Amino acid sequence: MRRRNFLTATTGTTAAAVVVPLVARPRVGTSDVIRLRSGLDALMALDDTRGGHEGLERAALAGAADALEKQKEGATQRIRQRLFSIAADYTATAAWSAIDARQSDRAQAHLGRALYLAGMANDPVAELRVWNSYAMLAHQRGEHVEAVDSGQAAQSTAITRRDPLFNSLAHARTAIAHSNLGDRQAALRSLGYAQEALDKAPLDEPRPSWVAFYGPAELTAITAIVRDRIGDSADAEAASHQALSSIPPQFRRNRALATTRLALAQLHQRDIDQACVTASTIFELMTGAPIPGRMRSLLGDYYRDLITLAPDATVAREWGDRYRSEWSRA
Fold it and tell me: What CA–CA distance (Å, rounded) separates 69 from 66?
């Protein structure tokens, strides 16, 4: 009798030791993936309106850390891989925020980490996103050959063979890099490939929130950049007007950047008065938010060209006063 009671008690204790922790420790599943994705979408919405800044970068890194912590407890291999993918996207968001704020060293470190996580996730969309950002970072640093290489690496990712919208983005980014090198033929050829691919892309397919900015309006805005850099300023102005007529209102930062490109195209045609009027509207567009570093740099390019082309014009001096005043916005 005692032996039977002992065995029963022992078995019960052993079962409790095995079962209770499994019940007490909830497993990570689809609901956690959805929650983390929602947080990422919220950060992208903030970026669309305000642009990159340190608060967004910190929040994105915190999201990546959360996803990686959850990954350790993932219920299945598929869930764990999806969490790696989310961590890659959060880290790429931090990198993008640093690029937009022109914090290139931080951006470089984040991109290296994001590329590693995208590989762990076997996620070609995240890989393309990272190479797209590498191309933009190389442009900021004046490393235009590296920007071409990064654009071509984006073109080589598996997602470009399955989704022509991503293929279009990769070619568009490469077109900018070619234009920065002064290679007119290659730039126009890449723009043509980008347009052909976009014409084939169903725009209503579900895709990650980070790529929501890209479509016909953005490609037209990129066309304006390329055209201006290869000396076709009149075509650049026309493309800028077309882009601004179709960029959705929620992409406030992108609208302000496209407006700056319009002002540059007008300036390069020596239409000084109109260029200054256009450039002044940028500050109204960004009212209520600090001007991101990337936009500040582009406005600096505009001001340098302005004082080079019209150093004694009254409108140029007045715009310069406004520019210096707005520069102090934190």
Answer: 5
> How is residue 157 annotated by DSSP?
S
Cα–Cα distance for residue pair 218/211, rounded to 1 Å: 11
The ranges assigned to domains in the chain are: 30-122
Q: Which residue is it, tokens 């293929």?
A: 167
- Residues 133/121, Cβ–Cβ less than 8 Å: no
- Cα–Cα–Cα angle for 87, 89, 95, rounded to 5 degrees: 105
Beta bridge partners of 28: 74
As a whole number of angstroms, the distance between CA 241 and CA 96 comes to 26
Please state, in angstroms and as integers, the Cα–Cα distance from residue 58 to each residue in 62, 80, 89, 200, following that order. 6, 23, 14, 37
Tokens representing 185 are: 């033929």
Tens digits of residue pLDDT in 186-245:
999 999 999 999 999 998 889 998 998 899 999 999 999 999 999 999 999 999 999 999
Name the region of 270 (left: φ>0; alpha: ψ -120 to 50; beta: rest): left
Sign of CA dihedral 229, 232, 234, 240: negative
Locate 149 and state its tokens.
Answer: 């290489």
Name the CA radius of gyration of the chain, rounded. 25
Rounded to whole angstroms, the Cα distance separating 229 from 309 reads: 17
Give 4's pLDDT tier (boundaries 50, 70, 90): very low
Contacts of 149 (CB under 8 A, 6+ apart): 138
- Maximal CA-CA distance, the chain: 108
What is the signed CA dihedral for 143, 144, 148, 151, rounded to 10 degrees? 70
pTM of the model: 0.85
